Amino acid sequence: MTFRGKLAGLFTAAAATTAAVLLSASPAWATVVSATPDPLPTFNGLVLATAYSGNTLFVGGDFTSVTAGGRTVARSRLAAVNARTGALLPWAPAADSTVRAITVSGSAVFVGGAFTAISGARRDGLARLDGGSGAVHNSFKQSLTGMPYGLAVANGRLYAGGSMTSLNGQAIGRLAAFDPATGAVVGGFRPRADSTVESVVAAGSRIYVGGKFGSINGAGGTRHLAALTSTGAVDTRFTSRASDVVHAVAVGASGVYAAMGGPGGRLGAFTTTGVGRWTLTMDGDAQAVTVLDKVVYIGGHFDAVCKSARTGDHGNCIDGNTRRIKLAAANEAGGALLPWAADGNGSSGVFTMAASASLHKMVAGGAFTTIRGAARARLAQFG
């Protein structure tokens, strides 16, 4: 599939910190962040989860130390950074294994993953932490088989999706909801995915979920991507047209975006009913996506964006490509690939992305150690 939309002009500020791109497919302007990342601390292991809250960026993953200002300090799979200054913050709860998901609501930071304890307190893959002190919430505790991969807070609930097959001894279908204040299970929320849920995103009254599953509640039109109501029912107004496993979901002003695997990889843009709007094809999986100021940012383990949807046996682009290593950006309205090129390195690439409209910043985390040839170990913020 060829890209729709034509690049009409590019204007770069003298400091080269932002670019504005006018696309003939839409009268709207898309403001792109700088491709040169901000100075930030570096991490000695994978960054798998990121979330903004005001001026704070919360980070989770599989790291055990962080280096900032020439000093290396212990941070056990959780850390926080001042997103304006780049300073490492003293927030330092310690998880005993991988953190895969983070979401924030007010002063509460919710984390999910493979851990069994945080700061010595027993927590079975899901915990609520204080965003200031890092203290573990006393009553918020569950017993899980499997772990959360995605978390979202909306409608007075914390929604979790992942590989969970039991909750407090009761069988569940990889999705659950909790009272965010107490951790009490929302008993009426019982959707069942038939395989792993990798992403959970709230938008209005809808909960979008993406993953490896073939269906939710056995319903048609829910393969790899589905919309749920706040009660857990499948929202039949949305029909999935996701072609492959969905690793991440984002929602923007123009619709829903799914970072997918497959032969090569795909970034699919859909309307709020699931109709396909445009698709970008890469030579490797798209693993993360976020939207900021009418621009869709994509992360993964690709090295190029294909000039058509045709890929070879190993995901290579048959009809030519444009070099974009681990990171790319497209206009939200029409899907035109933008000249933004914040090339990363390595094979695994980017696993998580988040955006802050108030700060006009976007962050990517993963396995990379450089961006545009400069050292940026596993976390890069652009703004």
From TrEMBL:
Position of the signal peptide: 1-30
Gene source species: Asanoa ferruginea
Name this polypeptide is given: Pyrroloquinoline-quinone binding quinoprotein
Classification via InterPro entries: Quinoprotein_ADH-like_sf, WD40/YVTN_repeat-like_dom_sf
UniProt entry keywords in alphabetical sequence: Signal
